[in-house]
Structures are given as C-alpha cells and as structure tokens.
C-alpha cells in the first residue's frame, strides 16, 4: 500500500474552519485580542457566554462579515478574506442575528435566494433548485406560507423563513447567530432538533451562538465558553460544564445536575435567597 503524501496527511488533521490569533474590533473598540478557535469538523459547535463577550463578533469573523484587524480566519486552509465570495458562499452559510427582507418579497422567493451561490451565467433555475427550496421550507415548517409576503409574518415565522433560506444554500458549514430568537419554546426545540438532524444525518458542521446554556449543553457536541473576548473553556458539554465554570463565565451561582431526559449537564440557578445570602456574606 502506498504511503499517504505528506500534504494529504497534514490536511486530514486540519479542521476546515478556524481563527488564529485574531484581533476583532469595531472602529477603535477592541472586542477580542489574540483569540484562537478551531471548529471541529462534523461537529455541532455552540458558542456561549455573557452579553457583549464577543460571541456574535467571533461568528461574524468566521463568516467573513468582519475582517480581523490582526490574525487570520482560515477556511479549507485559505485565508477567508482572500477567497472569491461565491466560493465561500458555496461552502459556508450564515444566518445573521438580524436580517431585513426586501419589501414585497414572498417566502418562497426569499428562500430561493439561498440558491444564488449555485447559479451562474449559464445555469438557470432548475428542478433541483425548486426541490431544495420546497424541502427547506418543509423542514422549517413554513411551506404553507410560501405565497405570503415576508413582511406580513410574525417574528417567529420570519426567523424560520431565514433559516429555510440558509438551508437552501446547501453548504457543508452552517453558522447561526441566535437562531432561536423570537421563537416560543416549542419552535426553539423544533429549530434545535432540526440543527441536530442536519449535523447527525447530513454530516454538516454547524456553529451556533445560543444564550440558553441548557439548550447549548443539550444539543452541542462541542462547546466554546467565552468571556471578555477570551476562550475560558471548550470541549464536550459533559466534560466542561460545571458549577465553577458557570460562575466564572456568567457570574451565576448554581448547581449542575444530569438532565433527566438526556444525561447532559443541566444548570439549576441557586435560589434568590441563597444568592442574596452569599452577596451579604461576601460584603
């Protein structure tokens, strides 16, 4: 049997998406410095942390929406900023935190925009495009809204339409910034179940920012905990989610027990009285 070429061997050990020593800033306001994150291939990675810790900023950098002022983001071994936009769009899809639909656009037309990276000068709308759009709407529960105008929908319905558009892009990597925003608890679980299914049955690599730590611990295969633009811990939820970590990252006193449904970590905040007593004792 012939030996694996050194270049192929090295490539097989490198994950497709990573940030290397990046400095992330808006104008002169630095959000993170020397931040490095590697997204495991075929994982469902969830980024958690308190407000303003850099979660969404990191996701924007990973998706090429924000150029690091230092360091680099790599996609398939290339600096993402140097890659053609269409090539990136065929590999990596993004559901941003807030999106605005054009006036007067229907649900089906908006979801259909997810197929644009697959179009070209000679390639027009195809039966495959139509099939993917219909399937994406079905998976997100918006098929019956296909002919409705997006601006007529509720916040939760619009969120599911945007997720359908991201699915229609059919990228092997999918980044989602707070995908459960505006959704009631039933639809939050539906969306996260869908994400888990995309990861498990289609082998997609997903990266999501979530605020709910218990949802993150239940669904993630890899968890990244940020605070102040720094990675405090990362790994499988069962390996890293402890009461000490939650207090360090979120400043919340709690217990961590086994979720009776899944066996994953379940964060139970201390009672108001217990937290008040601790504050009094510390003062």
TrEMBL record:
InterPro entries: AAA+_ATPase, ABC_transporter-like_ATP-bd, ABC_transporter-like_CS, P-loop_NTPase, Siderophore_ABC-ATPase. It is found in: Cell membrane. Its main location: membrane. Keywords: ATP-binding, Cell membrane, Ion transport, Iron, Iron transport, Membrane, Nucleotide-binding, Transport. PANTHER family: IRON(3+)-HYDROXAMATE IMPORT ATP-BINDING PROTEIN FHUC. It comes from the Bacteria. It holds the Pfam family ABC_tran. It comes from Streptomyces filipinensis. The keyword Ion transport applies. This is ABC transporter. It is a peripheral membrane protein. Residues 17-253 form the ABC transporter domain. GO terms for molecular function: ATP binding; ATP hydrolysis activity. GO terms for biological process: iron ion transport. GO terms for cellular component: plasma membrane.
